[in-house]
What does this fold into?
Amino acid sequence: MISRNAPNSWQELQTEVGRILQECGFDVEVEKKTPAVRGAVELDVYAEETVRGRKYAIVCECKYWKTRIPQNVVHGFRTVVQDIGANLGYIISMEGFQSGAISASDLTNLRLVTWHEFQDIFEESWFEEFFTMQIHERLGGLMTYAEYLVPAWYVKMSEEDKSTYSSLKEKYDLFAWLMQSLGPYTRREVKQPIPPLPLRAQRIAEPYLSGVPDHILDETGYRELLESSLDYGEAALAEFRVLRDKYKT
It folds into this structure.
């Protein structure tokens, strides 16, 4: 799943739904007021993207209820989705739906989903559009230090600093290679599915175990994996840059 953490309120549910859609590439507005056939309505989350010149609009109704959603909610939301001309509507519930609600959504452009199901639907898009690009944009510099060729300024370094550089490479090389395997260019070349979590359970990750912190290898949510990896990787990059800034002219 994108995140192992569940929202703690209806406001947070709206925010997190909008955040995922925005990170997938949609233009998003939370609590959007818009005119409709039967008068103005307020939408929990409105998301829009343009694909090859064609607009595609999604509307989300976020229900942080402690009971299952009844069918009258589905009927009302279906009318709103039709009135504003959206392509698809999602009702996102923390507790699921009554059987009548599920029947009411049959043969419509509504999707009734739990928070986890909503994440599953957008997981692949989110991973490719946000996760991999964040790895590239924020840790790309670290990956250059994992290459076999040393930087041009290496020859200017003192023996002590060369030793420090070598120690940093030994400490971070395997982590950098793992991050590179999760970046956009490697994934486009290899065309593998999203790696299941935790990474420790993957045979492909075994060579990297000795060079990656346990909290990264044991993470079960992609967002939390990304945040932990960025924190660790950017701290590593800062250590390399201390040496680079000392000798690069």
In short: The first helix runs from residue 10 to 23. The radius of gyration is 23 Å.
